[in-house]
Amino acid sequence: xxxxxxxxxxxxxxxxxxxxxxxxxxxxxxxxxxxxxxxxxxxxxxxxxxxxxxxxxxxxxxxxxxxxxxxxxxxxxxxxxxxxxxxxxxxxxxxxxxxxxxxxxxxxxxxxxxxxxxxxxxxxxxxxxxxxxxxxxxxxxxxxxxxxxxxxxxxxxxxxxxxxxxxxxxxxxxxxxxxxxxxxxxxxxxxxxxxxxxxxxxxxxxxxxxxxxxxxxxxxxxxxxxxxxxxxxxxxxxxxxx
Length: 242
Prior knowledge:
Blueprint: E1 13-17, H1 21-33, E2 37-41, H2 44-51, E3 58-61, H3 70-80, E4 84-89, H4 94-103, E5 107-110, H5 115-135, E6 142-145, E7 148-151, E8 156-158, E9 164-166, H6 169-180, E10 185-186, H7 188-192, H8 203-215, E11 225-228, E12 232-235, E13 240-241
Parallel strand pairs: 1-2, 1-3, 3-4, 4-5
Antiparallel strand pairs: 6-7, 6-13, 7-8, 8-9, 10-12, 11-12
Helix pairs in contact: 1-5, 5-6, 6-8
């Protein structure tokens, strides 16, 4: 059941970007019932203006907006803030799902949807984000490997030549697990922090593919993040923390 004990300061702020009035009303109602703060935007331009002055905890957005494609918003959200992104769309083709994850979204829900499932996915993203942030203590903030540096507090990955890459919350979570446990075989469930993961869920593979494209000389023949067929993945580099 929804809780009524949270103060405004403790409630997560969620931006909803949705031009369908019926869908928008349902999403706002169910999220407010579960004590989330919600701001609803009907187009991409209005939410991008607001993102310049305020940081939400999560953005829920449709890919088909009247003024721009939702993937453009995902890119700009990632460049401005380290908030989570949940795609809520009528596009059910696997290509669209992969594209959304490739652009940096943390999850993907297809319309029509079950409201309680939406709440569960929202909570999952927020929980992963809080876990990633709680790990980013001053004692173990910077992980260095092969000339690369991961700043766990700012979700920033710096290349040996000084180029900075702003990672999504999901990418940071996965890379954080790797650098915490190098030279160990890690299952997809361990990397995502979830139990009973569906064999059809390919979100971890997409995130690892994106990380490989940043840190591997040849992402098609990775040397740092190796696939251990039938078991999971292994991070092979030596890691130093500061």
